[in-house]
Amino acid sequence: MSTPESMTSPTLVTRYGAPKRRLDRRGRRLLVVVALVLAVAATALVALVVNRPTISSKDVGFDVRDPSSIVVDVDVVVPEGQRGRCGVQALDERFTVVGYTEIDVTGTDDGGSAHRVPMRTTSLAVNGGVNRCWPLP
Questions:
Q1: pTM of the full predicted structure?
Q2: Across-strand partners of 132?
Q3: How far is the first Cα of the chain from the last one, in angstroms, to the nearest whole number?
Q4: Between the CA of residue 80 and those of 38, 84, 110, 113, what are the distances in Å?
Q5: Nearest by Cα to 111 from 71, 77, 69, 67
Q6: Taking the CA of residue 31 as centre, how many other CA atoms within 13 Å lie in the half-sphere pointing to its CB?
Q7: Which residue ranges make up each domain of the chain?
Q8: DSSP assignment of 3-18, as one string?
Q9: What keywords does the record list, in alphabetical order (predicted)?
Q10: What b-and-e string marks burial along 1-12, b requiring 16 or more CB atoms within 10 Å of the CB?
Q11: What is the pLDDT of residues 57-75, one digit of tens each?
Q12: Which residues contact 119 (CB under 8 A, 6 or more apart)?
């Protein structure tokens, strides 16, 4: 690609910089192919993450035994053949975590399992339930 003589004069090059080179046809094709490969890889990654079975939980209830203990009842649904772990917490009246423990859960053929989780607290709890669940390898 040639440029007119006036565009490459030393004064213009000093003031504005040298003219930019454009990509040739081969460079543009390569850029499009790389963009398509990245788009396909990103789509596959999103499809794997979205279609992965998840662990779900439901808070059933809690029983405050005394200022230093609580029992939390939860139902956890884990896909069959998968293992997971759930964090169960107890909260005080200011929503501060005053007790926390983790339970291991496994998938069953009917899907769900009930868990009664006793836990020690640092002060009087007024609520208890599952914080979150995650799959284990």
A1: 0.63
A2: 87
A3: 57
A4: 33, 11, 8, 12
A5: 77
A6: 7
A7: 5-50, 56-136
A8: --GGGG-HHHHHHH-S
A9: Membrane, Transmembrane, Transmembrane helix
A10: eeeeeeeeeeee
A11: 999 999 999 999 999 999 9
A12: 69, 70, 71, 72, 88, 90, 99, 100, 101, 128
User: What phi, psi does 30 have (nearest 5°)?
Assistant: -60, -45
Q: Is 62 exposed, middle or buried (0-12, 13-18, 19+ CB in 10 A)?
A: buried
Q: Does domain 56-136 have CATH number 2.60.40?
A: yes
How far apart CA 100 and CA 96 sit, in angstroms, is 11
**Local structure of residue 28 (DSSP, 8 states):** H
Q: Is 27 helix (H, G, I), strand (E, B) or coil?
A: helix
Give the pLDDT confidence of 90-124 residue by residue, as tens digits.
999 999 999 999 999 987 766 678 999 999 999 99
DSSP result, 76-136: EE--TT-EEEEEEEEE-TTS-EEEEEEEEEE--TT-EEEEEEEEE-SS--SEEEEEEEEEE
Tokens encoding 98: 């005053």
Provide the 10 A C-beta neighbour count for residue 47. 10
Nearest to 88 by CA among 49, 130, 39, 46: 130
